[in-house]
């Protein structure tokens, strides 16, 4: 191989490295202005409210290269329409990100026992698996059986070995039929 051919190959390799590195940076660092962010929020809300909504990272990134802050805003806004809020929560589960984890933890604290709690708990477990189990473990002792049941189901579906071990342990002390039914497929 001649020196010129070698340099050509090195230059081509450098171009490929830069081509693959650039999208990764755009995925985590948003350089949007506040006006662009407000526009993204409107577009994202309209997308989540549309009849053609399908949860897709690609669709979300077409609207904003980093949709996580806007999704968190929509998911935690108290006056957001329920369907839009639920879809934002669902979309957040597609991003395993420290900001998403903190948002889910905050939503769990503020939505204990309400009708979106189950979606929040399952989305959190779907996104973070075994890493979310410790944050949800106290909800296995919640006074409402429907809260315990959804957490038990989530542990079985997404909680890994840690979730499975907690279900086996909790199965010995749980008395509510709905919770036992939710745990049954995972502890037998």
How would you characterize the overall build of this protein?
The protein has 188 residues and is an all-alpha fold. It folds into 2 domains: 33-95; 117-188, no CATH class. Helices cover 72% and strands 0% of the residues. It has helices at 3-28, 34-49, 57-63, 68-76, 82-92, 98-110, 117-128, 133-136, 145-158, 160-171, 177-187. Helix 7 packs parallel to helix 9. The longest helix is centred in the N-terminal third of the chain and has 26 residues, at 3-28. It is elongated and about 50 Å long. The protein starts with a helix and ends with a helix. 31% of the residues are buried.
Task: Provide tags for this entry.
elongated; mainly alpha
């Amino acid at each position: 191989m001649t020196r010129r051919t070698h340099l050509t190959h090195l230059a081509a390799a450098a171009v490929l490295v830069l081509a693959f590195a650039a999208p990764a940076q755009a995925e985590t660092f948003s350089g949007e202005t506040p006006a662009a962010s407000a526009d993204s929020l409107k577009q994202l809300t309209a997308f989540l409210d549309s009849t053609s909504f399908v949860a897709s990272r690609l669709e979300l990134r077409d609207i904003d290269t980093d949709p996580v802050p806007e999704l968190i805003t929509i998911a935690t806004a108290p006056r957001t329409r329920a369907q839009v809020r639920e879809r934002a929560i669902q979309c957040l589960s597609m991003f395993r990100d420290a900001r998403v984890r903190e948002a889910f933890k905050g939503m769990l604290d503020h939505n204990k026992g309400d009708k979106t709690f189950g979606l929040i708990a399952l989305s959190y477990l779907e996104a973070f698996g075994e890493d979310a189990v410790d944050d949800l473990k106290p909800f296995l002792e919640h006074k409402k059986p429907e809260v315990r049941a959804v957490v038990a189901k989530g542990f079985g579906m997404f909680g890994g070995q840690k979730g499975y071990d907690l279900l086996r342990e909790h199965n010995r002390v749980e008395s509510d039929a709905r919770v036992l039914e939710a745990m049954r497929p995972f502890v037998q």
